Amino acid sequence: MREDKVLEMIKTNPIVIKNIENPSDEMKLMAIKKDGIMIRYIKNPTSEMEDLAIQSNPRVIEFIKEPTYDMKKYVVSKIWNTLEFIDNPSEELIIIGMKQKGYAIKYAKNPSEKLQKMAIEKDYDSIKYIEKPSEEIQFFAIRINYVALRYIKNATLNAEVLAIREDESAIRFIENIDDNKKILFLKSNALVMKYIINDLSMDSVEMAFKEVLSKETVRDNYVRDFINCDSINEKYGNISMDKIIFIYKYGSKTCKKIAVDEKLNMM
Q1: Distance from CA of residue 90 to its chain's centroid?
Q2: Can you give the residue ranges of every domain in the chain?
């Protein structure tokens, strides 16, 4: 068949290159120009063909046996998860990928804490791709968004407490919570009571509140949350008296001052 006829066929449907024995360079280039993925059917492509294919479709790097470093940089800058097709990507390539998506960290072997933090800053849930993150890294992610706790395997107790302090609903991401943990979480955030309203005895609940509210270092928002949380109530049997009376009886001077201010704000 005449070459011009073959070229016309390739132009119409580039996949035909797959079935042509010993295609000319012109045929190969035509197929690649129409669809970069066609390079997978071309034996011994030239560097020109490889460059053309990558510009057409960065994912074709999967089919290039020995891509240059510049090729790698180009494809990752266009599509971050082309890192999947690059053996042992350098830190520079990982960073290029992470500028688009923090998930690029999953292609890094033994990433430094600097890289881990960069990934988490980009996408907090990137922590799910970090194997055995240190407590510092767990804290870093949780401070950005408490929901990061959901993506941490075997989070430390301190990380769980931090997440609870950030938002009481973090308790939804914690499994196997015994009574001791419930009390610890309640001491960290009074609003946790919404999730454990009838789980603990009144004595243990009041003891926890006494411990926190009696301190001069009690956090402002803890006192206000204690006062405003509807789930902490005599009618639920988790406290034996009105909360303002409880503060008057057991609260520190700091606690009482915050309580007075909160009541004035409510008037």
Answers
A1: 22
A2: 1-64, 67-131, 195-267
Structure token digits, residue 95: 């960073």
Asked if 121 contacts 97 with a C-beta cutoff of 8 angstroms, the reply is: no
CA-to-CA dists, residue 99 to 103, 136, 169, angstroms: 10, 22, 30
pTM higher than 0.85: yes
Span 27-49, pLDDT tens digits: 999 999 999 999 999 999 999 99
Helical H segments across the chain, by residue range: 3-12, 25-34, 47-56, 69-78, 91-98, 113-122, 135-144, 157-166, 179-188, 202-213, 220-228, 243-250, 253-266
DSSP secondary structure letters along 123-180: -GGGGGGSSS--HHHHHHHHHH-GGGGGG-TT--HHHHHHHHHH-GGGGGG--S--HH
The angle subtended at Cα 56 by Cα 25 and Cα 31, nearest 5°, is 30
What is the rounded radius of gyration, in angstroms, for the C-alpha atoms of the chain?
30
The terminus-to-terminus CA distance of the chain in angstroms comes to 93
